Amino acid sequence: xxxxxxxxxxxxxxxxxxxxxxxxALADECLPALTGQLRPDEIGRVYxxxxxxxxxxGQVGRYFVERLAQIPAQAVQAYEFAAYAEPALLGRGxxxxxxxxxxxxxxxxxxxxxxxxxxxxxxxxxxxxxxLVTQVAEATVLTGGEGDTPPAKTSSxxxxxxxxWMLAQHLAEPKGLGDPARVAARRGEIETAxxxxxxxKAGAETAMFGLARRYASASAVFVVGSxxxxxxxxxxxxxxxxxxxxxxxxxxxxxxxxxxxxxVDPSTLFVVLAPGGRASNKVxxxxxxxxxxxxxxxxxxxxxxxxxxxLATHVVEVPRGVSELASPLVTxxxxxxxxxxxxxxxxxxxxxxxxxxxxxxxxxxxxx
Length: 368
Prior knowledge:
The model has no long low-confidence stretch (mean pLDDT 93). α8 packs antiparallel against α9. The protein has two domains: 177 residues, Glucose-6-phosphate isomerase like protein, domain 1 (Rossmann fold), CATH 3.40.50; 146 residues, 3-Layer(aba) Sandwich (Rossmann fold), CATH 3.40.50. It has 368 residues and is an alpha/beta fold. It is globular and about 55 Å long. Helix content is 48%, strand content 14%. α10 links the parallel β6 and β7.
């Protein structure tokens, strides 16, 4: 059954270079038109808005924009932006980017309307031409991923990240950060991540399916990460909930250590995202704490040091060579596979909803 499930099919497409190449090609096609429409040379701040998976893509994309384009950026939940963004703080120097694979997320469209009415520039990042967000935005960049239709989207998330990486490069050009050598190096990071995803897939399913069987009776799953992988952690936890209907939450690694360990016991599973980078030492501190309370850990890393191996319950190795900034493109894959198989181990079809035909974000209060 699992071998033909649409969600597994979608995850497996991440091992196909064509999935990555499509997102890059669409960005190359769409981005040049932005120069005249959005005037990247005027942009001094970027807001990335979305809901659920798209919001988490924005959390990762914030780091792309800040590192590659050196422009302050912030990810904001789309409804929060639509309801509470202060118009006086928006203007032509602000770019609001709405991320929505379907393009029909009402809150994302409303966020663009608020930005537009406040004088900000607006951009839709979506897989779907002609969708709601494209009708509101000044400009659109297509991502690919229109075929990723299951309730729990997977491959389209990575394609959205690729698009945000390419957007960040485009915004860097007016700042003198778009010289050919730099652009080639940054594009090369996407290619390196694509190769890593292809290499990793070979043994990943066996490893992650085995861990899903082992921890199917866990009382909760916490996914933690730092920097660019906070959004990855959020997306991974959401997929555990969507597919397996098990309680899962995600936090920044250091933030979890401030109080939340009070709910942890040996039945609580941690997935720790630990690519080599700035947070490496903090990962060891965190694993020391989880070992002390005897909570099992799965560490996803490309640098499986002896210290990590000594403290972690399980180490899941992803291919080396991907920078910490680009690592979310690869670290999400084992989380998708784990969530997928965990659903079957807990008696759920990962395609199913616990409450069929129930879409709480679309409910309306009739009112008295």
